Structure formats: structure tokens, C-alpha cells
């Protein structure tokens, strides 16, 4: 992949891994369409750098996605990279959660349905541009789950398998997957040990993205994959209590 002179749409660019991706891509001379629900944060980001195009959007709402596509078709038909990064994680026990149905629906909408809809809606635009790519952010928990977040782990397993299959289908658009370990962001606040920073993740991603490595195992995910292949019960018992 060419790392400069792209127009990149990043979901969840207002915090954590998304904000670190935004900063890195700006430093590499790209334009970034930054998405999130936090309008104040988006405005603050856009004030700092005119190459940031803010767009307030709740990706779990179809009407927001429709508005986004019209905005892109009219103003940014040169968008060539989509990064599906936004995500949420609820930790609860299936037998004990009072808001179970609402939580199931919301987590699946944000983590799985919205990224797939965004890909479907953006394909006609991506197809017209050179150096086109889709980057999906999954998780080590999509490979080996933890106990406290079954729906989250299920959505990330879905993104993992979907990304592989879509890669087989698309000829001219490259499909990448970032598989992070525990990263120090709002999502993991107060949980887990041995976290890496979002910036460390992004540096590792960029090195692999540049070399067209499609399935990008970040940090300890490499070890997780090795263990899961050769000692799966050990991998499961470590991840069961996982902190992410
Ligand atoms: N942190 C980890 O250890 C870890 C590990 C593996 C995978 N991941 C994955 O990495 C991605 C980023 O996570 P993070 O740790 O950076 O999380 P984070 O710090 O909590 O940030 C989440 C981002 O998603 C956005 N977002 C959430 N719901 C949204 C919605 N309905 N519509 C639009 N934007 C929404 C938030 O923006 P607004 O609040 O402005 O809407 C925010 O920018 C997620 O997909 C997560 O599952 C994280």
C-alpha cells in the first residue's frame, strides 16, 4: 500500500486506536474523514489540522449511514481507504444482565452490522479509486474468547471470518484485518495487564500495511495464534480470564 496522499475514512477517530490511526496518517500526509458521535471532539480535532474532515455519525443508525454516503458521494468521491475501527464492549453474564436484549442488539450493530453496511455502501466509491483498501479491526478475543464478553467475542470472530472471505471476493480492493491484543484505551480502562499503547499498535500496523500483509497480528496476538494452534487448551485457559 502507498502510505501517503490517500483519503481515509476512519470510524471511531475520536479516541483510542482510531485517534492514534488518525494522527499517524496525518503525519504521513493523508486526508482523513473522521467519524464518531462526539461532535465536540471532532470539532476540536478539525481545528488542529485542516486535513481532518469531521463527520458526526452514530454508525449503529441507518439514517446516519445514509447521510454519510450522500456526503461522501457529493464531496469526497476520492475516498480510497475505509478503516472500520469503532467498537464497543459490554462485560456481563448472560444469566444476570437486566438489559440483555438491548445490549445484544447494540453491540452486534456497532461491531458487526455497521462495518459490513459501511463496506457495502462504500464499495462503489472505493472501486473508482487507486490504492483502495478496507481495514477491519477485530481482536484476539475473536480468535480465543473470554468469559465476560460473549457477544463482543462473537462479533469479533464474525469480523475475522468475514474479512478473510471478502478478501477472496474482491480483486481490486485490498482487505486488511488488524488483530489487536490488549491496548490501553477507554475500552480497557481499569482492566487487564501488559497493555500496549495505541501508538505501538499503529506503528506495527503501518509496517505491515505498507508490505501488504493482510492479516496483521499485533504484539502478543502472534503468540496467541501459536499457542492456539499447538496448545489450544492452554490458550483457552489464559484467554478465558482475559482483561480486554
Ligand atoms: N482496546 C483494546 O484492548 C482492543 C483490543 C482488541 C480490539 N479492539 C478494537 O479496537 C477498536 C477501537 O477500540 P478502542 O480500544 O480504541 O476503543 P475506545 O477508546 O473506546 O474508542 C472507541 C471509538 O469508537 C467510537 N464509537 C463507539 N460507538 C460508536 C458508534 N455507535 N458510532 C460511531 N462511533 C462509535 C467512539 O467514538 P464516539 O464516542 O465519538 O462515538 C470512539 O472513537 C474497537 O473495534 C475494539 O473492539 C480494542
How does this model look, in words?
This protein is α/β, with parallel strands linked by helices and 244 residues long. It has one domain (7-240): Rossmann fold (3-Layer(aba) Sandwich). The protein contains 8 helices and 7 strands, in the order E-H-E-H-E-H-E-H-E-H-E-H-E-H-H. It has helices at residues 16-27, 39-48, 62-75, 100-127, 150-169, 198-210, 221-230, 232-240; strands spanning 7-10, 31-36, 52-56, 81-84, 133-137, 174-179, 215-217. The chain has a 7-stranded parallel sheet, sandwiched between helices. Strand 1 (7-10), helix 1 (16-27) and strand 2 form a beta-alpha-beta unit. The longest helix has 28 residues, at 100-127. The mean pLDDT is 97. Bound molecules: NADP nicotinamide-adenine-dinucleotide phosphate.
- Shape label: globular
The neighbouring-strand order within the major sheet is 3-2-1-4-5-6-7
Fold-level CATH name: Rossmann fold
Specify Rg, calculated over alpha carbons: 17 Å
Look at the structure and give the CATH class: Alpha Beta
Bound molecules: NADP nicotinamide-adenine-dinucleotide phosphate
Largest sheet: 7 strands, parallel
CATH architecture: 3-Layer(aba) Sandwich
User: What's the rounded overall pLDDT mean?
Assistant: 97
Low-confidence spans: pLDDT under 50, at least 5 residues? none
- Structural class by secondary-structure content: alpha/beta
Looking at this protein, list some descriptive labels.
alpha/beta, about 240 residues, binds NADP nicotinamide-adenine-dinucleotide phosphate, 7 strands, 8 helices, Rossmann fold, seven-stranded parallel sheet
